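Task: sequence in, structure out. Protein: Acyltransferase family protein.
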Amino acid sequence: MKERLGWIDFGRALAIFLVVVFHVAYQFTRDENLRIVGFLGVSLFFIISGFMLSTKYPKLRSFDLKWFFKRYVKVASIYYLAIIAIVILFANQSYQQGIYDILLHFLFLNWLDPSTQYTLISPSWFLIPLMALYLAYPYLNKLIRKSEWFVVVAFIITIIYGIQENSPLTSFSLLFFLAQFCFGMASAQGIGKIMIIGPLLMAIYNPLLAIPYIVFWIIYLSKIPPIGSITLISKHTIEIFLFHEAIMNVCIGKWNVYGLEMPYSLLITISCFLVATLIASRLQKLVITIL
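Result:
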């Protein structure tokens, strides 16, 4: 798609706003009830990801290594740079397990060890089910285009998995976000009745978990035109997602860069964020050119 969709940009910007608001508010209140705010933001990300992949790659129905590698580079390029920056700037303020911790994050395997699941960049847990769904996309696309009712099956799977989970609003498993992702794909394909049946099942299970779908409907129907500042945020949601925790921790005095005062630590952190974003962008363009 050459033209940007303003409503998609707005949806992404809203999603990252909700995630940041949750982390800041939770840092000060420790109120578990706020987790629904973060869940709403993350769910919007998965719905929009499914929508955009189904819009851009409607014919991809079998695994394509070149395609997946491009998706991997888009995420890993900024993720690895963010990890390196956090390790250099904040050392043992952000992790305790040394090279073992770093290696597991680089391999997207930190979910295997409870002691490393939320270290370094705690919000990065979101990338694990995202990468898993990237891998699964061609097969999900094939199933949905073969029978639209697979989306209902996806909702049932997510509901059953959610019942078994200890934490109802976060999970490293793609099954927990399968409904959101497939709902986004179905929306791109214009499967109208599924846009009602799936969320209705979720509402019966837990009304709060149906909120992301309702919000997506509203944004989808609004057809908001592109807005400069919103588009800018939308283009860098992953970068904001990975760096906002460090910026927040520096601002509240929880972290510092080698003992420096907050203003200097903040300036260095933001500078690293901007440099990492620039380098990652160049790497992504290089890979696209080569492939």
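Residues 6-290 form one domain.
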